[in-house]
Specification:
The chain is α+β, with helices and mostly antiparallel strands. The chain is 32% helix and 21% strand.
Length: 632
C-alpha cells in the first residue's frame, strides 16, 4: 500500500474531524486519539467505515474522505495526537518524516477561537521562487503548538491547470499509467482518448492546436488554450493545459506529496520528451531545475498539511485562466464540447481533491455516487451530463463556525452577468448570492471573510482595467475586480453599511501575485463597520518586479491624498489607509514576495498584526501609514 497524497487535515472541530488522502489501494481505516499519552477516542475499522467515503478512480488510485462525527466533544487548546491506521498500518509504513521532532505521532490543536491564522494563494510549482508552504512547516516546527495558527486558508490557485511546465506534464504522463484508470474518450478531432494523449502524442507546447483553427473554434482557442498575450500585466501560457481527468488528479498528487515523485523518479529519473525544438529544450531544462527544488520541499509541505487544518477555495487557475470573467467567455467555452470537458474535468478534480473537505455535507451521497459512476466510465454521455451538473452547482461557498466565523465566498460560479454587454466583466457574485450573504452576516460582531479576488484594489490598476474594458478587451487585463461591475459593487457596499452588519470585517484575498493591507473606513450618516483587507499572493508566484514597482509608485503619485486626480475620482465614500511593508522604500506600498501571511487578531476579531512570511526567509510586517490615507 502507498499513500500518494495526504493525510491532509480539512475541517476540524470539537465534534467532527475531516481527513483527506489518496492511496494506490483500497483501505480500511481505524483512528485513535490521545491526549497526554492517554487514549480519548478509539474507532475500529468497522466504526470508521460509517464515516469513510472511498472513490475508486483507477485500479491503483483511490480518493478518501474521512468525515468523522464524534459522540463526545473533544478538548480545545491542547495537543491531540492521532494514530490513523490504514489496513492496520500506522504512519511509519506509508509516510516518511510525517511527524515533528519530539512526537511519535502526528497531532492537531483545535482552536475554534481564532487568535491567528495563515493565508495565501497562487502556488505555481515552476515559478522560480521558493515554496511559501515551507514557511508554514518552519513556523509549526519552531512554535509551541498551543501558539499555532488556528488554520491555513488557501484562497485560490492551489494548482495551475492552465499553466503547466512541460517537465511537470511529462511527470504527470509517467505517473498516470500507474493509476490504471479507465480510458477517457475525448471530444477532440486529433486525439480521441486519454491513453493516446498521455502516451502516444502528448502535444507538449502545442495543445492549442488540438482543435481545427476555424472560425467556430477561434474564440475558444483564444480564451482557454491560446496563451493570450496580455500587454499590461503578464504573459500567460496555456500550451500545456491539462485536459483529461487523469492529468488533473495526477497534478494534485504531485503538488501535495513527494510519494508520486519518488516512485516515478526512481523508475525513470528525469526525462525529456522527443521532438522538442532547441528553444523548447532550453525552456524544459530551466523549468526542470526549478521543479527539482520544488519536489525537494514536498516532504515538509506534506508534514505541515497533516498537522494544521486547511480551508480551500478555487480561483481561476484551479480551473482555467479568466474562468467565467464575462458572459461572452461563458458562452464560448461551455458551448464547445472539448472546452467544456477541459473546464469540467478541472472542476471535477477540485470537487474531490479540495471542495469536498471544506464542507462535506454540501455534497450529498447521491452526488458522490454520481462521481463514482463517472470515474468508473469516464468520457461518455454520463460524464458530460455530470459536468453540466457541476457547472450549475451552487454550494461551493461555505462557513466554518469559528470565532469569528470564517466565511468563504464563491466568486467564480455565481456571477452577476453584465446587462450592457456580453463582453463586459461580470460581477463576482450575483444579487441573490450577495443577499444570502447579507442574511448570513446579520447579528455577527465580527467576521473573517475570504474573497479570492481583492474587494478593494490598487486604484491605478483598476483604472487601466476599466480602460481596457471600455475598449472591449477585459480579458487582456484580467478585469475581474469587484468594482468592475456596478451592480455587485453597489450591493456589496450597501451590505457593509447595513446597520446589522458585523462591527469588524477582516477580508482575506489573493489572486494578484503581490501583497498589501488596507484599513478602510466607510463614510455615511453613521460611521460604518471597521474593514480591513489583507491580500497575500502568491505562495509561489510573483508579479513582474519592474512592472509592479512602476505601478506602485505611479499609483501613489497619481492618487496621493493631495492629488487633484484622486479628488475627482472619488466614488465609494470611504477612507483608505494603507499599511506599508516595513522594508518598503519611499513610495512603495505593495510587497512583491512569495510567501504566506500570518494574521494575529485582538479578542474582538480585529487584526492586531499582519506579517508576511516570505519564502526567502524574511518576516515583513505591515505598518499603518496614516499620512498616505486617501478618501475615495
Amino acid at each position: 500500500m502507498q499513500v500518494l497524497a495526504g493525510p491532509i487535515l480539512r475541517r476540524m472541530t470539537t465534534e467532527r474531524l475531516t481527513f483527506w488522502l489518496i492511496t494506490n489501494t483500497p483501505v480500511s481505516a481505524s483512528l485513535e486519539l490521545l491526549q497526554n499519552q492517554e487514549q480519548i477516542l478509539a474507532l475500529q475499522q468497522t466504526q470508521v467505515a460509517d464515516f469513510h467515503s472511498q472513490l475508486k478512480a483507477g485500479d491503483n488510485l483511490y480518493v478518501h474522505l474521512l468525515d468523522i462525527k464524534l459522540e463526545h466533544t473533544l478538548p480545545t487548546n491542547t495537543i491531540i495526537h492521532y494514530d490513523l491506521r490504514l489496513n492496520g498500518l500506522d504512519w511509519t509504513h506509508w509516510a516518511k518524516n510525517l511527524v515533528y521532532p519530539g512526537h511519535a505521532l502526528p497531532f492537531f490543536v483545535l482552536q475554534p477561537k481564532i487568535n491567528n491564522l495563515l493565508h495565501g494563494s497562487c502556488r505555481k510549482p515552476h515559478h522560480p521562487s521558493k515554496d511559501g508552504l515551507l514557511r508554514v512547516d518552519e513556523l509549526l516546527e519552531n512554535t509551541p503548538p498551543l501558539e499555532w495558527p488556528s488554520l491555513l486558508m488557501m484562497s485560490g490557485d492551489q494548482i495551475y491547470c492552465d499553466d503547466v511546465a512541460a517537465p511537470m506534464l511529462w511527470a504527470i504522463h509517467q505517473l498516470v499509467p500507474s493509476f490504471n484508470m479507465p480510458n477517457e474518450s475525448l471530444p477532440c478531432v486529433e486525439i480521441d482518448n486519454s491513453q493516446a494523449l498521455h502516451q502516444d502524442n502528448a502535444y507538449y507546447y502545442a495543445r492549442e492546436t488540438l482543435l481545427p483553427a476555424n472560425e467556430a473554434n477561434r474564440g475558444m482557442l483564444a480564451q482557454v488554450f491560446g496563451g493570450v498575450r496580455k500587454p499590461v500585466f503578464t504573459t500567460d501560457t496555456a500550451q500545456n493545459h491539462l485536459i483529461s481527468l487523469g492529468e488533473v488528479l495526477a497534478m494534485y498528487v504531485l503538488v501535495w506529496s513527494p510519494a508520486g515523485w519518488e516512485s516515478l523518479l526512481e523508475k525513470n529519473g528525469w526525462g525529456m520528451p522527443s521532438g522538442l525544438t532547441e528553444k523548447q529544450k532550453t525552456d524544459y531544462l530551466q523549468r526542470q531545475a526549478i521543479l527539482q527544488n520544488f519536489v525537494e520541499g514536498l516532504p515538509k509541505v506534506r508534514r505541515a498539511l497533516a498537522h494544521l487544518p486547511v480551508a480551500m477555495i478555487f480561483d481561476d487557475h484551479d480551473i482555467t485562466d479568466d474562468w467565467n470573467l464575462t458572459a461572452a467567455w461563458e458562452q464560448t467555452a461551455y458551448n464547445h464540447p472539448f472546452s467544456a470537458r477541459i473546464i469540467g474535468n478541472a472542476l471535477f478534480g477540485y470537487l474531490i481533491c479540495q471542495g469536498w473537505g471544506n464542507c462535506p455535507e454540501h455534497f450529498s451521497p447521491q452526488l458522490i455516487n454520481e462521481v463514482q459512476h463517472v470515474l468508473a466510465r469516464p468520457g461518455g454521455e454520463e460524464h458530460d451530463d455530470f459536468l453540466r451538473t457541476l457547472f450549475g452547482f451552487s454550494q461551493w461557498n461555505y462557513t466554518w463556525q469559528t470565532t469569528p466565523p470564517l466565511v468563504v465566498l464563491d466568486t467564480r460560479t455565481q456571477r452577476w452577468r453584465s446587462e450592457r454587454s456580453l463582453e463586459s466583466p461580470s460581477g463576482l457574485m450575483d444579487w441573490e448570492a450577495l443577499t444570502d450573504l447579507q442574511q448570513q452576516l446579520k447579528g455577527l460582531g465580527a467576521v473573517i471573510m475570504v474573497s479570492p479576488a481583492p474587494i478593494f484594489g490598487v486604484k491605478l490598476i483598476e483604472t487601466i482595467q476599466r480602460l481596457f474594458t471600455w475598449f472591449g478587451h477585459p480579458l487582456m487585463v484580467d478585469a475581474e475586480n469587484w468594482m468592475a461591475h456596478r451592480g455587485s459593487a453597489h450591493t456589496l457596499m450597501n451590505m457593509f453599511r447595513h446597520k446589522k452588519t458585523p462591527k469588524h470585517f477582516v477580508i482575506l484575498s489573493g489572486d494578484v501575485h503581490y501583497s498589501f493591507v488596507y484599513d478602510i473606513q466607510l463614510r455615511g450618516s453613521n460611521r460604518g463597520p471597521d474593514l480591513w483587507q489583507i491580500t497575500s499572493s502568491g505562495i509561489k508566484n510573483e508579479f513582474p518586479k519592474r512592472l509592479l514597482d512602476i505601478f506602485d509608485r505611479t499609483n501613489r503619485w497619481l492618487y496621493s491624498p493631495k492629488s487633484p486626480l484622486n479628488w475627482f475620482t472619488r466614488r465609494r465614500r470611504m477612507k483608505v489607509i494603507p499599511h506599508k511593508p516595513e522594508t518598503a522604500d519611499h513610495g512603495e506600498r505593495l510587497l512583491n514576495a512569495s510567501g504566506v501571511s500570518l494574521v494575529r487578531f485582538h479578542s474582538d476579531g480585529s487584526p492586531q498584526a499582519v506579517i508576511q512570511l516570505c519564502s526567502d526567509g524574511r518576516d515583513i510586517k505591515f505598518i499603518l501609514s496614516e499620512e498616505d490615507a486617501t478618501w475615495e
